[in-house]
Amino acid sequence: METTTSKTTASRSSALLLDTLEAELEEYETQLLELNTYSNELTHKYNEKVEFQECLEKGRKFLAAEADGASSKLDTVNPLSSAYGAPAISEDGMQPLLADASRGHSGLASGGFKHVIEGEMKFSSTVGILKADEKSRFERMLFRSTRGNCFARFAEVERPIADAATGRPEFKIVFIVFFKSEVISAIINKICDAFGARQYPVPDHLTLGNASQLGLIVRETTSELADAREVLLKNRELRLALCSRLARRYSEWKAVVLREKAIYHVLNLFRADVSGMLRGEGWIVASAEVDARTLISQTHAAMDLAGASMLSQVPLPWPVPPTSFDVNEFTYAFQEFVDTYGVPRYKEINPALFTAVTFPFLFGMMYGDIGHGACILLGGIYLLITHPAYRRCVSSAGENEMLGGVYASRYMLITMGLCAIYVGFVYNDCFSLALALFDSGYLWEGSKGSVAGSVDGGAEANLSAPYGSTGSIYPFGVDPAWHISSNELLFFNSMKMKTAVIFGVVQMTGGIFLKGLNALYFGDRAVFWLEFMPMIIFDFCLFVYMAVLIFTKWAINWDRRQLMGSCGIDGLTFDQRPCSDGDSLKHKCALNFGGETGGCAPPNLINQLINIALNPGVVDEPMYSGQGSAQSALLAIAFLSVPVLLLGKPVYIYFQHASQPASASQPISTQIEMDQDSTSSEDPKSKEVHSFSEVLIHQCIETIEFVLGMVSNTASYLRLWALSLAHTELAQVFWEKIMRTAINANSIFFVFVAYSTFAVRYFGVLVLQCKLACV
């Protein structure tokens, strides 16, 4: 479709809306930045006041402790400690100020600060706060830098306080340092800067000793702290209110911006036309054309604009249209699943519809367990019930990609659970236990009509009714007697492996038929006769024939055939020929199909299938007359179909192109993306040769992919058997080692604990891990 719209009309409303929104957001941004800046300043000042108050309190305690002689309760740094030795007079005239009359003894030992006061000596002091873990390094640096000419005291702050610079809560200590020289003051200031210690203008020690004056300072500081805290709380309330108002309108603004960006993105795809108009070409679903025209008319009416834009159909020819599928909540997950492998071309058959049926059923074949399927079914039902609440949460809080994918697959999980339950009934398996829903077709000595009663190990089972009669057939699924037989694993291996191969061949053959139907719909004779037909012939000659052999083996009454290959008590074969027990089976068999058994013994199908390719014409255990010749013919036909698939289409296109007139001759490009950068001066013959080689290479790749894919995919379908076998065996191990041991212990508590362990391990290993292995 072609859309023409006015450039002025299209941009006027969008620009006005975005300008208004931008101005509104800038205003909110300015307010928020101002509040944040003011909050940072207030917080910094508040933290400084807290540190200042701690310095006042601890400074008062310093002098009170000194006056009471309780210096042992505080950390004291004696610069003349015997650990460092009494410093001598240095060359720059610096010497210990608090040295006692006796060398090597500190002033603190004979009175400390009190001794200083009695000597009527005037000292300067500085008070500050420091990180607690820097105390040792700080006091060591003070002593070494001042050479003992200072007196420092420390006190820890009991609670962590916010750092004035960083705002992070930290444990700190308050220090007071007394000194005499201006030189030492400069040294102490540099040390404090290096350690990040902040000094505060605390009154000197004489003022600190005045209790009334100090109390006044403390009360003023406390009042200022209360006022600052109130202002901070008010600032926080204002910021919270502003952010709440912004959060309520965030979804609205986001929707507006995304919508306007989408509009501008679409307008950028238009190209300028005459008279200030924009012209754009695109695709629209045919069923939505009427709705598109209606929306355009409604837009014109709402904006009071007549004829500002119009929608018209582009004349033919058209390029290949894109693919669009109408999906609902049920088919969405399956469509996404198929699209991860490839999107069908326009008007091709959509394989997602078939996947909606085959994928859950194949999953059920892999994990055919009634209990396992019930867990998955309950999970899908839970997602289905909670989906409306999830949608409401998404509308308010935004989309979660992972959780959204889980909810999108809710219907897929339900179908997978239903199929697993169905196949679980077929396998007669529920948490590794068989269900005796009907009477068994087998009886042991000691059993009571079914599988009830006690049976000795090694006992043989006998049919409860004649072979092939209605009474000998279990009504639905596998007879529970097989679950307690000694050859259980052999039976289920054979059944599940053959079933997996049959369903795999059916699905692969169905995919090939879809290719043929697409070729018929598009009228592509080359694809139908030279691709589809060789593919389906190759498939039928080898893989469908393999499924036919499986059904043939199942359909034959091997008891009767083995009877036909036995020697009677009268010394005669089934067809009344003389025989002896030493004769070979081939000699005694009345069928005379050839091979080593003559058709009277069940064959090993795996060996037969291998010998089709490795030993053509030789069948050791035939099932019908002329089987070797038939398999040789099928193998030859399958091999002949491969060259047809490889060369048929390229040769057909080559001769079709060569038969065209020279003026109409174009490079071969059927279904191949040709190079668009070739120059017009290039020789047409070189283009033709180059294009033919492209087609040949493409067909060669497709042939190799098909042949190898048929073999590898058939082997891949054996995973249905392998995973089902692993699931069953693991479940049996968990039951035997956990639940059965607890039940045999005859302890209710032990059974309860064992059941909890069994449930957790079963769900974690068999349900979750197997689900991931399937994905």
Which descriptors apply to this entry?
five-stranded antiparallel β-sheet, 21 helices, alpha+beta, 775 residues
Characterize the structure shown.
Strand 9 and strand 10 form a beta hairpin. By secondary structure, the protein is α+β, with helices and mostly antiparallel strands. The strands form 4 sheets. The protein has a 5-stranded antiparallel beta sheet, sandwiched between helices. Helix 1 packs antiparallel against helix 6, helix 8 crosses helix 9 and helix 14 packs antiparallel against helix 18. It contains 21 helices and 13 strands.
Total DSSP E strands: 13
Shape: extended
Helix content: 55-70%
Through-space gap between termini: 40 Å
Could you tell me the radius of gyration in angstroms? 46 Å
Proportion of beta-strand residues? 5-15%
Biggest sheet features: 5 strands, antiparallel
- Given the helix and strand composition, which structural class is it? alpha+beta
Mean pLDDT: 81
Low-confidence stretches: 70-120, 667-690
Which strand order does the major sheet show?
2-4-7-3-8
The DSSP helix count reads: 21
Secondary structure layout plus pairing:
Blueprint: E1 2-6, H1 7-68, E2 75-77, H2 113-118, E3 124-131, H3 135-146, E4 151-156, E5 161-162, E6 169-170, E7 172-179, H4 182-195, E8 198-200, H5 205-208, H6 211-268, E9 271-272, E10 277-281, H7 289-303, E11 309-312, H8 332-339, H9 352-366, H10 370-397, H11 401-408, H12 410-427, E12 442-443, E13 462-463, H13 488-522, H14 525-555, H15 558-564, H16 585-588, H17 605-614, H18 627-658, H19 684-716, H20 719-744, H21 748-774
Antiparallel strand pairs: 1-10, 1-11, 2-4, 3-7, 3-8, 4-7, 5-6, 9-10, 12-13
Helix pairs in contact: 1-6, 3-4, 8-9, 9-12, 9-20, 10-12, 13-14, 13-19, 13-20, 14-18, 18-19, 20-21
